[in-house]
Design goal:
With 128 residues, this protein is an alpha+beta fold. Helices cover 44% and strands 26% of the residues.
């Protein structure tokens, strides 16, 4: 099983970033964190890197359910969604596959939650 879901989009990087944020909202997720990898690598290491942002997305009711089922699940929260521009100009959106991540935990109580989150992330990718 892959650990991520991904889609190459026919949008500019900025358009994809806006579309992902809007699609996440439509599925009940807010963006709690935004890490600009390009900017961070330039600032900290003076390395040029393509446009690459990590969005930390959270759906509070689903996060609460997961935490009630497995209190250490916070190490896997929030769900990361990446918007990146490849050197050839392609723009790709990818998201963590929560079903794959939860398999390693072995808590059956998380299966339904992970499936729900996975379905939502698939819909986000469809909408971008």
């Amino acid at each position: 099983m892959n650990y991520f879901l991904a889609k190459t989009v026919s949008k500019s990087y900025d358009e994809a970033l806006a579309a992902v944020t809007e699609a996440l909202k439509g599925e009940g997720f807010g963006v709690l964190t935004e890490i600009d990898v390009k900017e961070t690598l330039k600032k900290k290491l003076d390395i040029d890197f393509p446009k690459y942002k990590i969005l930390g997305a959270c759906n509070p009711p689903l996060a609460h359910k997961a935490l009630m089922s497995e209190n250490q699940i916070g190490v896997l929260l929030p769900c990361n969604v990446v918007v990146q521009e490849h050197p050839d100009g392609r723009v790709e959106v990818s998201a963590m596959d929560p079903a794959a991540a939860m398999q390693a935990i072995g808590n059956k109580g998380l299966d339904a939650i992970a499936s729900d989150v996975r379905a939502r992330m698939e819909r986000v990718l469809e909408k971008v």
